[in-house]
Design a protein that fits this description.
The chain has helices at 2-6, 18-24, 35-48, 62-74, 90-101, 114-122, and strands at residues 10-12, 28-30, 53-59, 78-85, 107-109. It is an alpha/beta fold. Strand 1 (10-12), helix 2 (18-24) and strand 2 form a beta-alpha-beta unit.
Length: 123
């Protein structure tokens, strides 16, 4: 929101929600597609590959929630559950892994795997 008032222009080196672009009133440029476009594309890929059952796993934040919302709009199969976590500690991740194991999924959609991988790297 500070971009229009400050008469600044920002260059974003990663993806962001479409809402961020709208807030900038045209003063932000990105080198990537919006995260909604990414999620819609991935949902279409899963649809064409015949994926019928998936779960969504991510760290709770608005970035991942925007991914989830766009993915849900385009995915034609069943989303068994959305699982969020707030910590990358291995004890929490182990519990999630056990939960996922019993779900009989065709795929697991993780909009942002970096926090998860970072948690595994710490332990």
């Amino acid at each position: 929101p500070f971009l229009p008032g400050a008469k600044s222009v920002a260059l974003l080196g990663s993806s962001a929600p479409e809402a961020v672009y709208k807030l900038s009133r045209g003063r932000m440029l990105s080198t990537h597609h919006s995260i909604e476009s990414e999620s819609e594309f991935l949902a279409q890929i899963l649809n064409t590959r015949g994926i019928k059952r998936t779960a969504i796993l991510f760290v709770e934040n608005q970035f991942s929630r925007a991914h989830e919302a766009a993915f849900r709009k385009k995915f034609s199969g069943t989303i068994v559950e959305t699982i969020t976590y707030s910590s990358s500690e291995s004890s929490q991740l182990k519990t999630i892994a056990l939960r996922l194991k019993g779900m009989d999924l065709d795929a697991l959609y993780m909009p942002d795997a970096y926090p998860l991988l970072q948690g595994f790297g710490k332990d």
